[in-house]
Amino acid sequence: MKYAVFNEDQTLRTCLIDGVHQIPASAIKVDDSLFLKITQETDGIWRLVDGKVVKGERPAPVPDYALLVALERYKREATGVTIDGLQIETTRDSQALIASTGLSAVLDPEYRCNFKTVTGFVEIGSAQIIAIAKAVRAHVQACFDRELTLLRAIEAGEFHDDMLSQGWPDSSPPDPAELQ
After folding, report:
1. Count of CB atoms within 10 A of residue 77's CB?
2. C-beta separation of 83 from 127 below 8 A
3. Residue ranges of the domains in the chain?
């Protein structure tokens, strides 16, 4: 004998075989054909409806909006900024390099370096290095601030899909032709 066991909400919990499993009193006896369908057809939700085992449609998946927002923030965070005509990368690696260069500029006001921008190397001094570090930090923080605003909208039930592409810092990635 074969059986199906259902949850309190009448959705299928498991299938059991007498002699192999302990059969609870709440189990429903099913024939071999239905048992095979229940165990093989996974394209829906099996339920107990008015004493009959039926397959219904799966509910539409609910997007993980918080994850989508975090992914968008990460993408926007790395779009870069332009400071005094210099196109500066804002990837995580670039942020770390800029922070360490900024520390050198703070410790030594005479510090100079060959700094690599999107379009190539330039020699800059401590004042420019600090300006770049501040601009990059402001850009990245604005991305995190936008993420927080969107997360609060999600929590309040006020989020709409079009909000994901709006309100981010006003920097755009360089034209791919400029990277060559």
Report:
1. 24
2. no
3. 2-56, 65-179
